[in-house]
Amino acid sequence: MNVNGHHYRTIWTPDDGEPGLVRVIDQRVLPHRFEVMELRSVDDYRAAIFDMAVRGAGLIGATAAYGMWAAAVAAPDNRTAFNEAIEQAAGMLMATRPTAKNLEWAVEKQRALMASAAEVAQAREAARVGAAEVADSDASMCASIGAYGLEV
After folding, report:
1. How would DSSP label each residue in 24-36?
2. Which of 56, 74, 75, 123 has the smallest CB count inside 10 Å?
3. CA separation (Å) from 3 to 6, 7, 62, 75, 93?
């Protein structure tokens, strides 16, 4: 999306951002206004999904994936406590839209990535990379749909 000559994705990590921080376009105010929200805590991510600030299956999944990254960043360094925090975050996020398959898929993908990491620091990095992959994949699919639609 281009706004005033600047390209925006629907969800992105700012170059100067802190771990767990993303920005999203608040879709509740479109097309009359353009506003960007910052999401930092799992509750921010939960609210963005629940309140429909983010819309569409792909973006909801990407938001949930980044929410799991935020949970990993905020979780304690002790592996047992870390795992408990991740499970709590997963439950919070999945409860926002119980029928949203992209959300469920993204949360489960993040759970598996973090569970396979040997150490908490590796789990946090796996969650960051996994969330970026989910968002990038969705952006790529949307671009492909647009390219196909342009030909039609």
Report:
1. EE-TTSTTT---E
2. 56
3. 5, 6, 22, 36, 30
Q: Which amino acid is it at 105?
A: W
Count of Cβ atoms closer than 10 Å to residue 19 Cβ: 15
How would DSSP label each residue in 15-76?
A: TTPPTT-EEEE-TTSTTT---EEEE-SHHHHHHHHHTTSS-SHHHHHHHHHHHHHHHHHHS-
List CB contacts of 64: < 8 A, sequence separation 6 or more: 45, 49, 93, 94, 102, 103, 106, 107, 110
pTM: 0.92
CA dihedral 143, 57, 117, 132 (to 10 degrees): 30
Which tens digit of pLDDT belongs to each residue from 92-119?
A: 999 999 898 999 999 999 999 999 999 9
Sheet-wide strand order for 36-39: 11-12, 22-25, 36-39
